[in-house]
Amino acid sequence: MAIYSLSMPSTVSGSGAPSWDCKAAANSNPRVMELGVSNGAATAMTYGWGRSSNTPTQTGIVLLQAEGLEAAALTGCAVTWSTAPTVPAQYFRRYYGPATIGAGIFYTFPRGISLAAAGASLVQWNLAASSAVIGVHVVADE
Questions:
Q1: Which residues of 58-86 are buried (b: 16+ CB within 10 A; e: fewer)?
Q2: Which residues contact 67 (CB under 8 A, 6 or more apart)?
Q3: pLDDT tens digits for range 92-130
């Protein structure tokens, strides 16, 4: 397996909506090892990360990038969907961030959060009435 990573901005969404997700391809079972966010605006943010309750259909997919010289990644992240991720039943992590540009948090998952091939995604869910554009980064072993 190889290490891949990606950083991209999330979308601004209303409360109770997805703003970013990471999904395995049909022929891979990656493990998300790290996830981080940083605030891009002076707006408070409240997000949760968990597995979607459905199998979303991403559009505008951005593939993770190899940190070494390995082949291209199969795992992709998106901020737009033709079938959006649905709310997770439970969250792995939640973050209540201040209205401060640059505020953020980084989570590590020592054994990784497994993503099933062509299954549910790891979704960033907006839990507040307002949200900001935030930078999201993810590191996965694929």
A1: beeeeebeeeeeeeebbbbbbbebeebbb
A2: 2, 3, 4, 5
A3: 999 999 999 999 999 999 999 999 999 999 999 999 877
Tokens of 36: 């981080």
**Domain total in the chain:** 1
Prediction pTM value: 0.94
For the stretch 26-83, pLDDT in tens is 999 999 999 999 999 899 999 999 999 999 999 999 999 999 999 989 999 999 999 9
For residues 134 and 39, the answer to whether their CB atoms sit within 8 Å is yes
Which amino acid appears at position 13 of this protein? S
- Per the listing, tokens 């707006």 go with 43
Q: What is the DSSP letter of 102?
A: T
Indicate the DSSP class of residue 129.
S
Range of the domain at 137: 3-141
